[in-house]
Design goal:
It is a single chain. This protein has helices at about 5-30, 35-45, 45-55, 60-90, 95-120, 120-140, 140-155, 170-180, 185-195, 205, 225-230, 255-260, 265-275, 285-295, 315-325, 355-360, 370-380; strands at about 210, 215-220, 235-240, 245-255, 280, 300-305, 310-315, 335-340, 345-350, 390, 395-400, 405-415. The chain is an alpha+beta fold and about 425 residues long. The chain has 4 domains: about 5-155, no CATH class; about 170-200, no CATH class; about 205-325, CBS-domain (Roll); about 330-415, Uridine Diphospho-n-acetylenolpyruvylglucosamine Reductase, domain 3. The strands form 3 sheets. It has a 5-stranded antiparallel sheet with strand order 8-9-12-11-10, with helices on one face. Strands 1-7-6-5 form a 4-stranded mixed sheet. Strands 2-3-4 form a 3-stranded mixed sheet. Strand 5 (about 280), helix 14 and strand 6 (about 300-305) form a beta-alpha-beta unit. It is elongated and about 115 Å long. Helix 1 (about 5-30) packs parallel to helix 5 and helix 4 crosses helix 7 (about 140-155). The longest helix is centred in the N-terminal third of the chain and has 31 residues, at about 60-90. The protein starts with 5 loop residues before the first helix and ends in a 5-residue tail after the last strand.
Length: about 425
């Protein structure tokens, strides 16, 4: 090496440091790639993504190749630096040369390249795979031998290269991915996706129309009253009962009545047109109920408790609203929640808390009581009198009207408060 000019040695060391920076940055970039985006791009036919996916299927081989190359260039740079130091200042210059090389490698071949790769992994990784893929083919025997020894050492400590957890996501992890998608997915679609993920947590009794609010045809009513109810109904299906909803007869599909439009409406006609009621137990997850609706080609079910008593009614629309939100665009259209002024609302006690949150964009607790009346009683541990007021988190609640057994109406507003 005495015949090699110092300028050539400097150039070689510089090239080796650049190679070291390449190995360091590409290692970080490849390991930082978003595996799901990579898989999508590979399925879309992007060649670099397919190569990267193939390399990452055997990470031990890829890491072995990178570290093998990195160690070779770093050791070569250290050897050449030693020669340069000896030629410039003898043994006394070795310490200085080692210090300078350590600083240069640390900054220009490790920290800076790896930071760049961590910030922009695809920009570094995709070009690098065109070098690593053929290089792995050429150096495979040496890489295989290196991995064989390394994996043997790992097995001594009970670690096997086949012990791979995979990249499957749980519901909560998938929710985090959706919420962090940012501008890649609009807020509307993020809400819909999280709504789908939440279907297993929400049950039919969380979204059902309560027993007392079920609108249906009472066969004991005058036939003219029944006709008016059918005429004004906004629903395509109505439960039919005698005296009260617990004496259910069946479910009437309005399409069946259309076919009988020219025939005088009678109770016997209604009885002949009703379909058998469909009952589901309370506590059924919405995800399960959605599948059951699909299998039975049904859109309406009556929710019953463990004693077989009807607790309410759930429809396919109720489940869909948990995913896409309210079908009505203006929450003020709901007569059960009327805006008074600003952010103050007068709300009926029978209103479902989840529905209220969805309409107003609030976050009232939903892990306990289902209705506003139940929520108030749960917080106060009594049936309050009219005029009772309290705060729950950032919401102010004032009871406007109450009777002996429930809160009939309350005024709610969003503002600072303590529970």
């Amino acid at each position: 090496m005495d015949d090699v000019p110092l300028s050539a040695l400097y150039t070689i060391v510089g090239v080796l440091i650049v190679c070291s920076a390449f190995f360091s940055s590409s290692e970080t970039a490849l390991m930082s790639l978003n595996r799901y985006r990579l898989r999508h791009r590979a399925r879309s036919g992007v060649r670099s993504a397919r190569l990267a996916e193939a390399l990452l299927e055997k990470p031990d081989r890829l890491i072995g190749l990178i570290l093998l190359g990195n160690n070779i260039v770093n050791l070569s740079a250290a050897s050449l630096t030693t020669i340069i130091a000896l030629r410039l200042g003898g043994e006394a210059a070795l310490a200085v040369g080692t210090g300078i090389l350590t600083f240069v490698v640390l900054i220009f071949a490790e920290v800076a390249p790896k930071t760049m790769a961590a910030l922009h992994p695809e920009r570094i990784a995709m070009p690098a795979v065109y070098i690593y893929y053929p290089l792995l083919k050429v150096a495979y025997p040496l890489v295989w031998l290196t991995n064989l020894i390394a994996n043997g050492v790992l097995r001594v400590f009970g670690v096997r290269s086949s012990d791979v957890d995979g990249h499957a996501l749980s519901h909560e992890e998938l929710r985090t991915v959706v919420n962090e998608a940012g501008a890649l997915i609009s807020r509307k679609y993020r809400t819909m996706l999280t709504g789908i993920l939440d279907l297993e947590k929400v049950t039919v009794d969380d979204v059902m129309v309560p027993h007392n609010d079920v609108v249906g045809i009472d066969l004991d009513d005058d036939i003219d009253e029944i006709a008016k109810l059918i005429e004004k109904s906004e629903h395509t299906r109505l439960p039919v009962y005698e005296d009260n909803i617990d004496q259910i007869v069946g479910v009437l599909h309005m399409k069946s009545l259309v076919r009988k439009a020219k025939v005088e409406l009678t109770r016997d006609m209604i009885r002949s047109l009703v379909r058998e009621p469909y009952f589901v137990p309370e506590g059924t997850p919405l995800s399960t109920q959605l599948v059951q609706f699909q299998k039975r080609k049904a859109r309406l079910a009556l929710v019953v408790d463990e004693y077989g008593d009807i607790q309410g009614m759930v429809t396919l629309e109720d489940i869909l609203e948990e995913i896409v939100g309210e079908f009505t665009t203006d929450p003020g259209d709901d007569p059960h929640a009327v805006r008074q002024d600003g952010d103050t609302w007068v709300v009926q006690g029978s209103v479902n808390v989840r529905e209220l949150n969805r309409q107003l964009g609030w976050e009232l607790p939903t892990d306990g009581a289902k209705t506003l009346n139940g929520l108030v009683q749960e917080q106060l541990e009594t049936i309050p009198a009219a005029g009772t007021a309290f705060t729950l988190d950032q919401y102010s609640i004032e009871v406007i009207d109450a009777n002996d057994n429930m809160v009939v109406e309350a005024r709610l507003s969003e503002g600072e408060g303590v529970s």
